[in-house]
Amino acid sequence: MKHVASSSLLSLSLSLTALLGGCLEPMAGRPSLARRDVELRDRQAEAKAPPPPIESVTDPALARDLTALLARADRAEADFAMARSAAQQAVAAAKNASVGSEAWSVAQTRISALDAPRRELTQLLGDLEVLYVGRLEKEAAGEIKAGGAAQIEQTRSHVLALVDSQDSVITMLKSGLAS
């Protein structure tokens, strides 16, 4: 019995040694967990920045598509601004209201109304992704002259910044209601 226990203990200690040895391996070949530049960007400032100039796009079809997409983004942002104002007023009115009260329910409803314009922007991001991939495929196949992908990416960055800004507003309003 003693021999079995000591052999189990020996194999356990050898297994632990092998496992711990793997933890001491150098990190040279592994990706860093440090924040990347894209994660440090100020999305709020990007949202306030004007959208990219469409006039610089040499492809008239792409310029037309980007103009239409930016018009949709403007409408969604305007709708969000109107809904945000109503939500802010409702949250202020429900500041000391108990959960489930009339004021609290109205504030929750107003905050939920912010999801529709935000959803429009996220759908717009999907449309921009499809446009971007399609553009790159056509360029690679030689169907169209290279160029335009940068303008699509700039438009995408602008819309993404709007979404991030809206997310911040929704989070702030929800936290104001929870207190």
Describe the structure.
With about 180 residues, this protein is an all-alpha fold. The chain is about 75% helix and about 0% strand. The chain has 7 helices and no strands. Helix 4 packs antiparallel against helix 5, helix 5 runs antiparallel to helix 7 and helix 6 packs antiparallel against helix 7. The termini are far apart. About 20% of the residues are buried. The model has no long low-confidence stretch (mean pLDDT about 80).
Can you give keywords for this protein?
179 residues; mainly alpha; 7 helices; flat
- Uncertain segments are none
The total strand number stands at 0
User: Helix count?
Assistant: 7
Q: What does the largest sheet look like?
A: none
Question: What overall form do the CA principal axes indicate?
Answer: flat
Average pLDDT, all residues: 80
Structural class per helix/strand content?
mainly alpha
N-to-C series of helices and strands: HHHHHHH
Distance between the termini: 63 Å
Q: Please tell me how large the radius of gyration is.
A: 26 Å
Indicate the percent of residues in helices.
Answer: over 70%
Strand content: under 5%
